[in-house]
Amino acid sequence: MALDSKVPQGPIADKWTDYKNHIDLVNPANKRNIDVIVVGTGLAGGSAAATLAELGYNVKAFAYQDSPRRAHSIAAQGGINAAKNYQGDGDSTYRLFYDTVKGGDYRAREANVYRLAEVSANIIDQCVAQGVPFARDYGGLLDNRSFGGVLVSRTFYAKGQTGQQLLLGAYSAMNRQIGRGKIKMYNRHEMMDVVLVDGKARGIITRNLVTGEVERHSAHAVVIASGGYGNVFFLSTNAMGSNVSASWKIHKKGAYFANPCYTQIHPTCIPVSGDHQSKLTLMSESLRNDGRIWVPAKLEDAQAIREGKKKPTDLSEADRDYYLERRYPAFGNLVPRDVASRAAKERCDAGFGVNKTGEAVYLDFAAAFVRYGTEQALIHGDHNPSAEKIDKLGKEVVKAKYGNLFQMYEKIEDENPYETPMKIYPAVHYTMGGTWVDYNLMTTIPGCYCIGEANFSDHGANRLGASALMQGLADGYFVLPYTIGDYLSDDIRTGAIPTDSPEFEEAEKSVKDQINFFVNNNGTKSVDHFHKRLGKIMWNKVGMARNKQGLTEAMAEIKALREEFWKDVKVPGKGDTYNEELAKAGRVADFLELGELFAKDALVREESCGGHFREESAETEGPQKGEAKRDDVNFAFVSAWEYKGEPADAVLHKEELEFNDIELKTRSYK
Amino acid sequence: MSGFLSSSIGRKVAMALSAFFLMFFLIMHIAINLTSLFSEDLFNQLSHFMGTNPLVQFALQPVLILGVVFHFVMGFVLEAKNKSARNIKYVKNNGAANSTWVSRNMIYSGLAILAFIVLHFVDFWFPEINHKYIAHLPTDPNRYFGELVHKFHSPVRTGAYVAAFAFLALHLLHGFKSAFQSSGMSAKRAVKLETASKIYAIGIPVGFIIIALFHHFNQH
Amino acid sequence: MDMNLKLKIWRQNGANDEGKMVDYSLSKVSPDMSFLEMLDVLNEQIINEGGEPIAFDHDCREGICGMCSLYINGEAHGPDRGITTCQLHMRKFKDGDTIYIEPFRAKAFPVIKDLVVDRTAFDRIQHQGGFISVNTSGNTQDANSLPISKHAADEAMDAATCIGCGACVATCKNSSAMLFVGAKVSQYALLPQGQVEAADRVRNMVAQMDAEGFGNCTNTGACEVECPKGISLDNIARMNREFFKANI
C-alpha cells in the first residue's frame, strides 16, 4: 500500500482552516448513534474522550491504571509550549513551528507541525477555562519560562507539576462526561487486540485486569492513545506499566509503525544504583540553567572518586573538565538533550565516570551559589560579604528555584546536593517514533486513529522540551475531534456494531489462546528476567550511539531472546484472576518484537539525526568534528514499517518529507 | 437546609456549634464558682439568681440540657459511624506518628466526662430540682455556699472531681481548636488558635480543680 | 551494608477471601533500594520458589501518579515524610527489622487482592462535580482576559497538588476522605472560573463522599502529616465554609 499523508493543498498557514471548512460533519442527532473507543486516558486520550463525548458521540475509554488521573502524562514536570507571545518577545505560530521542525532535526512532517503550533494557543485558553492553576505573575497574568533549544519564553507551567495539572484538567472534563453517562470508563482494563471488520477497525478485545475476564467491545472507530514505548529498554523514566502493546497489536493488524528508532535520551536523570533498579527518575531540564556539568580531567582522579578515596569537592578547578562548556562554547550546558546525553556517554566510556558503576557525571551548583549569593548580598546592601554569607544566600536562591528537585535527589541518593555535586546520567525518556498516521491522525487501518506520544507525527527525530504536553492536548482537544468526524460521517447509517461476528470470535480466541499459553507454559524464568535482558541489549547496542555491527548483533540477540522467552517464561497464577505477571508477560512479548524492529530501523537509517546517532555518520573534520551528520539527500523520509510476521521481515515504506516552508540546515550548537 | 444535618459536614458543624455553646457555659459556670473562693455572699447571690430566675430556669436550663444531650448523642453516633468506616482494622497502626493521643481518644475523654456529669447531677442538680420543684422546701437564699463546701468534704468525691477535670482538659485540648476548624476557621490563625486553645483547655479545668481542692481543705 | 529483613505482609486472594498476615524473610537487601524494589526482589524470590507474587499497586515510581499505597509499620507510605511509598528507600530501615505491610484500609477502599485496593470511590466523588462545565471549543476567551491574583492561583495550585493516593483516608482513624474532597473543592473555590457552580459542586461532592461510606473528620490532623504532597488541613476548613455557604 502506498503511503498517502493526505496533507491538504494550499499555503501552510491556511491548510488547517481550509481543511476544517471542507470536511464532512456528523449532525448532533446522528452522533448519538456512533460509538468511539479510546484506548489510553493520558493527555491525548483523556482530552479526546472528553471532547468526543461533549460532541455527542458515545465514548468507551480504557485505561490499565485504576483511574484516568494516573496516566503517565502526569509525570511531566517542566511545562507546555504555546505560541501566545504574552511576553512580547517575538513569538509566533511560525516561530514555534520552525523551532519544532528544527529541534526535530528536520524529520517531521511540516503540515502537522504547523497545525500543532496553530492550535497551541487554544490549549492554554481551554485549560485556564477548566481551572488549571498555571503559574501567574503579580499582575494576575500568566507567567512563562524558557526551555532548551529556543530563543523565546513560551512555556506555561504549574510549579514542577505541569503534566499532572493538565492531566487533571482533561480528567475533570472526562469526569463531567462520565457523570452524564457519555463516557463509559473502563479502569484496570488492558487492550489485548483490535478487531477489524471488512478492513475497518470496529472494536477491541480487552482483559479486565481485576477479574481476568476477556471482553469484546465494538465501536465505529478506535483511537489508540497509549503513549510511548521507552520501556523496551526496561530502565526508563516511563511508568512501570507503560507499554507498546496497544500500538503493537494494531501494527500486527495492518498499521504501519514509523521511525521506531527515534528515542529521546534525557541527560539529567538520577543514575542507576544497582541491579535491583526498576525505574529511573528524571530531574527537570531546568536544572541545566544553573548547574555546570563536569567530570574529573584526570583518569586517576575519576578512579579515586569511584573507589571513594576522593570527593568531588577535593578537586581544584584545573582538575575538572567542564566538557559541555569546552566542546560547545556557544550553548554550553544548555545544548539540546541529545547532544548533552551523548557527551556524557562519551566521557563515561572514556573512563571518567564518577559513581560505582562508572556511569555518572557531576551537575554542580557551586558556581550558581556564588553568583546568586553575591547578587543577593548586593541587593541587601552588603558590598563586602564573607564567603559563608555568599554561600548561604546563594543556596537560599537555588532552594527557592529547585528545592523540590533537590529534595527528591536527596531522598533517592542519600546525598545532600547543596554540599556535594549531584550525579546524573542520561536515561530513556520519550519515543518520537510510533504508529504512522496521516494528516487526519488515522493509521493505515481505516477507522483506527493514533494520537499523542503513540503516533510519530510531530517531533521528528528529537522532541523539544515542553512540547509533548502540547502535542497530546492538541491531538485530543483540537485535531482528532474534527478529523474523526469526517470519517464517521459515512457511518451514520451503520448502526451498532455487533460483537458476535466471526471477526470478534476469532480475535477473542487468539487472545485467550495466548493467555492459556502463558499460564500453562511452566517455564523457569520470570517475565522480568527477560525484560531486563532485552533492556540490556537495547541499551548497549541500540542506545545513545549505534553502529552497524552492534545493530546487526542486537537483532539476532533479540530474536534469540524472544525464542527463549516463548519456551521458558514462567507465569505463575491463573488467567481468570488478577494476575500482574500475566499482564506483564503480554507486554514483554510485544516489546521483544518491537525491539528487533527498532534495531532494524536504526540499522537502515545510516545517517545521524536528532536522538538517533550512527557512529558511522559523524563529521570527520572541521569545527563540527565528531558531531552528528545528517544526510538529507538519502534519508529525508519517514520509515514506515509494515508487519510481515517476523520483525526482521518487516517491509519498509518511505514517506518522503518535503520542506517548503523551512530551509534544511545543519544543527549547530558550537 | 434539609439535608444539612444528615450530611457529614453538617453533623460536624453541629457538633462544633454545640461545643461552642458548652464551652461558653463552662466559662459562666467557672466564673460563678470562682466567686466562692473569696466571697460567700456573692456566690450565694449569684447562685440564688441562677436557681430562681425563670429565664435561666425555664429557657436556658432546658437548652443547656438539650445541648449536652445533643453533643453526647451526636458524638456517639459519629463515633459508631466512623468506626464502621473501617471494617477491617490494621494489624499494626502507629497513630502516635501523626496525631495526638487526645485527638484520637475524644470518645474516652468524653465518656469520662459523661460519667462525671452523672455524678455531678446526683450531687447538685437532682437535690436542687428536688428542693425547688418536688419537695418544695423553703427558699433560703444563703444555703448554696454551705452545700458546696459540704459536698467537697469527702476526699473520694473531691478526687473524682479532680480526675474528671483532668479528662475535661484532655477533651478540651483537642475539642477547643477542633470546633473552630470544623466551623471553617482558616489555618492562617492557627498559631493564635493554638495558644487560645491551651489557655482555655488548661485554664478552665485547673480553675475547677482549684475550687474543689480549696473547699476540700477549707472545711468550716 | 546489606540487610536481612522479616516481613509480615497481608495476603488476600481476591475480594471474597478472608486474608491473613504471612511471614517472609528476605536477605541481602541493599539500603539503596526503594521499598517497591525490595518487594520486586521478594516477588522474584516467591516466583522462583513456585509461589504467587504479592500484588501491589504502583506505576510511575517517582511519586506523582498516586497509584502506590501500602500501610508500612502502621503508617501510610511508611515512616518517611513528604513522599509516597515508591520514594521510600530501604535505608530508612535497619538490619534485622520486622516490617508490617498492609493495604490501605477503609470500607470505601475494598481490597482487590493482597495489597491492591479499589480507590474508584475517589473517581465517583469527582464525577459529581470535580470539574468546571466548559466544553472544548477553541473559542473560549483568551487566557489572559481573566486575571487571577497570584495568591489565589498559588493557593489553588497547592490544593491541586493532591495525587489522589488515598493516604489521608488510610491514615485517618475515621477513614474520612475530607482532605481529598477538601482539596478538590478548594482548587475550584479559589479560582473565579469555579464560582458559577460552587454551591452545587460542594453539595454534590459531599453527598457522594458520604454515600461512599467514608467516615467523618474529627480534626486529628493525621491526614495532613501523612499526605505525601503536604495538602493542608485548611482545605477541609474551606470545604466546611463552602458547604455551609451552599446550604444557607
TrEMBL record, chain A:
<dbReference type="InterPro" id="IPR003953">
    <property type="entry name" value="FAD-dep_OxRdtase_2_FAD-bd"/>
</dbReference>
<dbReference type="InterPro" id="IPR011280">
    <property type="entry name" value="Succ_DH/Fum_Rdt_flav_su"/>
</dbReference>
<dbReference type="InterPro" id="IPR030664">
    <property type="entry name" value="SdhA/FrdA/AprA"/>
</dbReference>
<dbReference type="Pfam" id="PF02910">
    <property type="entry name" value="Succ_DH_flav_C"/>
</dbReference>
<dbReference type="InterPro" id="IPR036188">
    <property type="entry name" value="FAD/NAD-bd_sf"/>
</dbReference>
<feature type="domain" description="FAD-dependent oxidoreductase 2 FAD-binding">
    <location>
        <begin position="35"/>
        <end position="469"/>
    </location>
</feature>
<dbReference type="GO" id="GO:0008177">
    <property type="term" value="F:succinate dehydrogenase (quinone) activity"/>
</dbReference>
<keyword id="KW-0560">Oxidoreductase</keyword>
<keyword id="KW-0285">Flavoprotein</keyword>
<dbReference type="InterPro" id="IPR027477">
    <property type="entry name" value="Succ_DH/fumarate_Rdtase_cat_sf"/>
</dbReference>
<dbReference type="InterPro" id="IPR037099">
    <property type="entry name" value="Fum_R/Succ_DH_flav-like_C_sf"/>
</dbReference>
<feature type="domain" description="Fumarate reductase/succinate dehydrogenase flavoprotein-like C-terminal">
    <location>
        <begin position="531"/>
        <end position="669"/>
    </location>
</feature>
<protein>
    <submittedName>
        <fullName>Succinate dehydrogenase / fumarate reductase flavoprotein subunit</fullName>
        <ecNumber>1.3.5.1</ecNumber>
        <ecNumber>1.3.5.4</ecNumber>
    </submittedName>
</protein>
<dbReference type="InterPro" id="IPR015939">
    <property type="entry name" value="Fum_Rdtase/Succ_DH_flav-like_C"/>
</dbReference>
<dbReference type="Pfam" id="PF00890">
    <property type="entry name" value="FAD_binding_2"/>
</dbReference>
Automatic annotation (TrEMBL), chain B:
<feature type="transmembrane region" description="Helical">
    <location>
        <begin position="158"/>
        <end position="176"/>
    </location>
</feature>
<keyword id="KW-1133">Transmembrane helix</keyword>
<feature type="transmembrane region" description="Helical">
    <location>
        <begin position="58"/>
        <end position="80"/>
    </location>
</feature>
<keyword id="KW-0472">Membrane</keyword>
<dbReference type="InterPro" id="IPR034804">
    <property type="entry name" value="SQR/QFR_C/D"/>
</dbReference>
<keyword id="KW-0812">Transmembrane</keyword>
<protein>
    <submittedName>
        <fullName>Succinate dehydrogenase / fumarate reductase cytochrome b subunit</fullName>
    </submittedName>
</protein>
<feature type="transmembrane region" description="Helical">
    <location>
        <begin position="101"/>
        <end position="122"/>
    </location>
</feature>
<feature type="transmembrane region" description="Helical">
    <location>
        <begin position="12"/>
        <end position="38"/>
    </location>
</feature>
<feature type="transmembrane region" description="Helical">
    <location>
        <begin position="197"/>
        <end position="217"/>
    </location>
</feature>
<dbReference type="InterPro" id="IPR011138">
    <property type="entry name" value="Cytochrome_b-558"/>
</dbReference>
